[in-house]
Amino acid sequence: MAQRLNVLVCSGASCLSSGSIEIKKKMLEEIKKAGLEDEIRIIETGCMGPCELGPVILVYPDEILYKKVKKKDVEEIVENHFLKGRPVERLLYKSPETEKLIKKHEEIDYFKKQKKIVLRNCGMIDPESLEEYVALDGYEALGKALTEMSRDEVLKEIETSGLRGRGGAGFPTHLKWKFTKDAEGDQKFVVCNADEGDPGAFMDRSVVEGDPHTVLEGMAIAGYVVGASKGYIYVRAEYPLAIERLRKAIKDAKEYGFLGENIFDSGFDFDLEVRIGAGAFVCGEETALIHSIEGKRGTPRPRPPYPSISGLWEKPTNLNNVETYANVRHIILKGGDWFASIGTESSKGTKVFALSGDIQNTGLAEVPMGTTINELIYDIGGGAPEGKEIKAVQLGGPSGGCITKEYFDTPIDYESLTELGAMMGSGGVIAMSQDTCMVNTAKFFLDFNTFESCGKCTPCRVGLKQMYKMLDKITKGEGEKGDIDKLVELGESIKKTALCGLGQTAPNPVLSTIKYFRNEYRQHIENKKCSAMVCTDLLTYTIDPDKCKACTLCAQNCPVDCIDGERGVVHEIREDECIKCGNCYDVCPFDAVIKTTGELE
Amino acid sequence: MSEKIKLKIDGYEVEVEKGATILEAAKKAGVNIPTLCYHEDLDPSAACGICVVEFENKGGYQRSCCTPAEEGMEVITNSKTLRKRRKMIVELTLSNHHVDCPSCAADGKCELQELANHFGVETEAMPSVLEDKEKDKSSVAIERDPEKCILCGRCVEVCENIQTVNAIEITDRGFEANIDTPFGYGIGESPCINCGQCIVYCPTGALKEVDHLEKVWDAILDENKHVVVQEAPAIRATLGEEFGMEIGNVTVGKMYAALKRIGFDAIFDTNFSADLTIMEEGTEVVGRIKEGKDLPVITSCSPGWIKFMEEYYPELAKNVSTAKSPQQMMGVLTKTYYAEKEGLDPKDIVSVSIMPCTAKKFEAQRPEMSDSGYQDVDYVLTTREFVRMIKEARLDFKNLEPQEPYHALADYTGAATIFGATGGVMEAAIRSAYYLLTDEDMDSLDVTPVRGMEGVKEAELEIAGSKLKVAVAHGLGNARKILDKVKKQLEENGESEYAFVEIMACPGGCVGGGGQPYHSSIAMRARRGEGLYKEDSELPERASHHNQAILNLYEDFLGEPGSEKAHHLLHTNYFKRSVLTGKSIAKATGAHEKHLEKAAE
Question: Does this chain's domain B4-78 share its CATH topology with B215-600?
C-alpha cells in the first residue's frame, strides 16, 4: 500500500552523530500518537550529502528538506506538516544570498550542480532494503550482463565508458579487468577496496552505508567478466555500520538469488565475503590489502607481478575501489557511450568528493568530471564561512597536494590535478583559509603518513621521520636556512625510492605547500613568524598597558602563573615562562592582551 | 631451453634468461648494483630501495633486485640522480642506526659500513633519529641489538620461510616498526631454535652470538684451570677464508697450532667424537632396523633441529636417535675418561668447544647435559668468536706451523670430517652400518646421492640383501617436507618408507651454521663442504669403525657400543616444548630412560 508521505531520515555518519536516530524514534512516537502510522512511512537512509545541515530530513513527495532538526522539533513537524500540510518554515533551507526560503531540496545550490550516478540511491532508499534497491532498477544490470551479454561485450562497454579507477591513480578499469580475465588461473578473485582511510574522506563509507547493493552488483558483474566465482570486500573495522549493512546486503542478495550459485540461471556462480581490516592506512595499498586478507602483515610488496596476474593467494585478482564498482551497473544499463558523454576528454563520469575544512557546506558531493574547483567549493561548497577567504584546497588527502586560488578554475580530472602537484586521490577536499598555517598543515599530513607508513622500506620509514622532524623544528622556530631545500631534496628522493604508493606520495603535502607557499616557510624560518597564528611557539603574548584595567582575570586563568600584577597594577606577562596557551587572550574582557608573531624588528 | 632476452646495461648488451632480474643481468654485464636488504639466497623484500635503477627509454625508478629484466630494456645503473638517491638511503639508514663500528661484532663485515664507505657518506650527514632501545639478552645463544637493526627483513625471511621457525616477525608500523618475538617475550622465551641463521644473514651487527670469549680467556689465563678444547668438523673448512685463504681450505694443523699458541692445555677434536657418534648411532640404527622398531631413525647431532623437533614434531621424538651430539659426547668424556686418564679433578677442567653453531651454546646448557656430574661443556665459541680470538692473540694464522692434538681424543677418520656437510652424517653412518650388518666394508665408501646442496636428498641402498631407503634434509623448511611425509606414513600405515633420516637445521649443514662468518651464502657453504669431502678422500681411514683411538676408548673405558656405560654417558632424552615460548613442558621420550632401566634390571 502506498503511503501518503515518505519521510527520509538521513543516517549518514554525520547525521547519526548529531542525533538522527533519536529524531527517528521520536517521530515514530509522534506519528503513532497522531494516528498516522498507516499514512506515513519513515525510512532511515544513507548519507544525503549536506552534512553541514544535519540532521537532515527529506519528505516525499513534497521534496521538502528540513535542516538541523532537533528532537524537540519533531512534534511541530508532525503536527503542522504531516497533519495540517504546512511545512515548518523555520527548519527549511534559506538561500544564503537572497535569504529566500527554499522548500524543494533540488533547488538548493548544494544539489543543483551535482550529478548523481554513484550516489543516486544514497539518501533516497533504505539501504537495508533489497526491495527498494530492486525497485530502482537494482540487479537489472547484472541480469542484463549475465543473460544478454557475453563477457567481452560487458568488457567492451566498460572500455567505451572510459571508466578509470576511483581509488586515486585512475588506471583504466577495463584494462584491469582484461588483464585479470586473460590471466591464467584455476581460481580468480574480485576484491573491493573499502579501506578508505584519508583524514576527512567519507565517500566510500557513504556509498557502502547508503547503497550497499550497488557495490555488490558491480562486483558480481566484474566477477562475470574476469571469471571469478568469489569476491571479498575489505572494509576497515572503524566502519561498523558499513560492515553490518554489507553483510545484510550479501545475505539478502543470496536469498534472492542475486548472489550465490547459478545467478539468473546463467550458470554463473558468485559469492561474496566481507573481510575486516584493522585500520592501517597502508592496507588501502593493493598488495598490502591482499596480504591483509590472506592473514599476513599488511605490508606492500614490489610489483610486478600485479594483482591481476598474481594477487590473492597468488591467483589472478581484480581489485577496484568502492566508487569504481558503484559506477558499473549504470554503465551496463545506460551504456558506455552515455557514461563517456559525461566528463572530460580523459576523465569520464562523475567523482564523489567529501568537502571539509573552512567551507560552509561540508558534506558529500558528486559532480561531473571537468567541474572546476571553483564550482565545487563555491557553488556547491558555499565558499568559506563569513570573514574568511579560501586560500587553498588540499586534494587527495595525505597523499595529495594543495592547489591555490589562482588555479581554482582548473577543471577536475586526473591529469590536470597531477600536473598541479595534487592528485584526485579518493576524493577528499579540504578547504583552507588564511587561518590555516600551511607549514603546520604539511606537518599534520606528514605526521599522519609517518605514523601510517608500514615501516618496511627505508625511504618511507626513516625519510618521512626526518622530514617530520625538520617541519617540527620549523614550526617551533628552530628552522635554519637551507631547511627548505633539504626538505625538497629529501621529499623528491623519497618519492622516487619508496616501495609503494603511500611512500611515493607521502611527501606531496610538503612539496606542494613549499611550491605554492614558500613564503610561509621562509617567514617561519627567517622571521620566526606564523602569519596564520597557528604555530604556538612562534606567538608572543603581551599586555597593552593602556588597555589593561588590572582586573586580574588573566592572571587567575594563567596555568603557569607567569602574569605579574594585582588589582590596580597594570599586568605584565613574563615571556620566558609563558607557554602560549592563549588563556589570557581569550579571557581578557578589554582586549588588552595582544597576540603577535614574528621577531620584533 | 629457456627463453633468452637481450637488454642493455649502461650501454652494454647482455643476454639473460627470461625471468632474471635486472640485478642479475647487471651482474652479468659486470656491474654489481649496490644492495643492502637483498641477499642472493633469499626472496627479495625490496625494503631498502638502494638498488634502484633508471631507464634510458622510460621514466621512473625500479628496484633492480625484484624487477624482471625485459627484452630491449636500457638500464642505467649510475647517474647523478641515482647517486644522490642512493646516498640519501645510506644517510637515512645511518641516521637510525647505532654507529659503533670499532666495537661492533660485524665490523669489517657490515654491509652498511661498506656502502657508507663506498659512497663517501659521513656518519652524521643527517641528524640522528635513533631512539633508545633495549638489547634482547634473553637467550643463551643469540643476542639482538635493535639499535643496529636496519629492518632489511632478512632475519625474518630466513626464520619464517627458510627455517619455518617463526620466532621473529616485524611488528608495529611506521617508524616504530621493529623486529620482535611473539608477545615481545624475547628470543630466549620464543620458539627460536638458536640456529643463528638470522645472524649469518644479518647485514649489520644487529644480531650476534652470546659471547663466551671473555670467560674462555679468563679460564685460559687462570693457572688453576685446565682448559681443554674441541673443534667441530666444519671449523677447519672455514677458518682459512677468514685469514685470506681460499674458501673450503682445510686448515686442521694450523687450527691446532693456533689453539696451542692461544694457551689451551689440551686440544681434542670433535671429529673424534663424531666417529664415536657413528659407533653409537650406527649401532642403534642397526639394532632398530633388525627389530623393525621406531623407524626411521632420525639423526640427533644438530641441536637446532632437536629443539625444532621438540617444539613442532614431539610425536617423532621416539624416532630420533638417543645418541648425544659429538660436542656433548666429547664434553662428557673430558670430565670422566680424560680426567681419570690424566689424574685431573674434573672440577678443575674447563671444557671449551669451538662450533660453527649458535644452538650448541643452548645445547651445552641443557640441564640433562651433565652426565659427568658437571656441566659437560662449559663454554661454546662460534667460528666468529674463535676468529676474533686468533686476531686478538695477533697470530699469523696463514703462516703457522702445523701442530699435533691430544691424539687419544682427537684422531679421526674421513667419516667424521664430512659431518660438517649436509649428508655427511648419513654417509658416515651408512659406511659403518654396512660393516655392522655385513662384517665387511663397502666396495666404494662414497655415497654420492646424499651429497650436495639439494634441499631434500634420497637414496636407496642394498645392504645384506635388504633394501633401505634413506633421506637427508638440511634447512628446517626442507626438513618439514620429509617429516610431514614420515608422520603421515606412520599415521596411515604404521610404518615409513625410510629407515634412516638425516636432518641438519642449517642449509648446507654445519658449514652453513649460525656460528659461521657473517654472510655465508649457499654458494660459500657448498665450497666449504667440498673442502671436507676432499679431506675425507685423502684420509687414511674413512670409516668410523676403523678409528683406532675409538676402538681404544671402547676397550679402555666404555666397553662396547651401546653398553650400559655408553648409554649412561653418551645418550639422552628429549622433551616436548611450547611452540610459543620454547620452554619444555613435558618429557617426550623415554627410550633412553627405558634402556637404562632395562640395563639396571
Answer: no
> What is the model's pLDDT at position B595?
58
Task: Assess B93–A contact: CB distance below 8 Å, yes or no.
Answer: yes
Residue A260: all three cell numbers together: 550465490
Check if B391 is active-site: no
* Shortest CA distance from B85: residue in chain A: A493
* Whether A457 and B47 lie within 8 Å, measured CB to CB: yes
Interface test with B, best of A462, A488, A493, A502 (most B CBs within 10 A): A462
Among partner residues A297, A455, A462, which is closest to B129 by beta-carbon distance? A462
Q: How many CA atoms lie within 13 A of A478 on its CB side?
A: 6
Cβ–Cβ below 8 Å for B46 and A497: no
Question: Between A and B, how many residue pairs show a Cβ–Cβ distance under 8 A?
Answer: 103
Q: Three-state SS for A42? A: strand
Residue A417 CB-density burial (10 A; 0-12 exposed, 13-18 middle, 19+ buried)? buried
Residue A513 has pLDDT above 70, yes or no: yes
How far off is chain A from B232, nearest CA to CA, in Å? 38
Judge: A455–B153 Cβ closer than 8 Å, yes or no: no
- CATH number of this structure's domain B215-600: 3.40.50.1780
Helix (H) or strand (E) holding B595: helix B591-600
Q: How is B225-244 classified by DSSP, letter by letter?
A: -EEEEEE-HHHHTTGGGGGT
Architecture of domain B98-209: 2-Layer Sandwich (3.30)
pTM value is 0.91
Chosen for mutation from B53, B84, B92 (greatest number of chain A CBs closer than 10 Å) is B92
Grid cell 597531477 in the structure block, residue: A418
Q: What is the pLDDT of residues B326-364, one digit of tens each?
A: 999 999 999 999 999 999 999 999 999 999 999 999 999
Alpha-carbon distance of B324 to B331, in angstroms, equals: 10
Q: Which residues of B touch A299 (CB under 8 A)?
A: 170
> Which CATH number is associated with domain B4-78?
3.10.20.740
Q: Domains of chain A (ranges plus CATH)?
A: 5-108 (3.40.30.10), 130-340 (3.40.50.11540), 350-433 (3.10.20.600), 438-527 (1.20.1440.230), 536-597 (3.30.70.20)
Q: Which residues of B touch A452 (CB under 8 A)?
A: 173-174
Phi, psi for B471 (deg, rounded to 5): -140, 150
CB B127 to CB A451 under 8 A? Answer: no
Alpha helices by DSSP H, listed for A117-182, are 130-135, 140-148, 151-161, 173-182
Grid cell listed for A57? 530530513
Q: What burial class does residue A459 get, using C-beta atoms within 10 Å of its C-beta: 0-12 exposed, 13-18 middle, 19+ buried?
A: buried
ipTM: 0.91
Query: Catalytic annotation on B321?
Result: yes
Q: Is the C-alpha dihedral spanning B428, B430, B436, B439 positive or negative?
A: negative
Residue pLDDT, tens place only, B141-190: 999 999 999 999 999 999 999 999 999 999 999 999 999 999 999 999 99
Active-site entry in B27, B109, B208, B360: B360
Question: Is B49 part of the contact surface with chain A (CB cutoff 8 Å)?
Answer: yes
Asked whether the beta carbons of residue A458 and residue B92 sit closer than 8 angstroms, the reply is yes
- Across the range A145-161, mean pLDDT stands at 97
Residue B157 among the catalytic residues? no
Contact flag B129-A466 (C-beta cutoff 8 Å): yes
One-letter amino acid identity for A93?
A: Y
Structural domain spans, chain B: 4-78, 98-209, 215-600
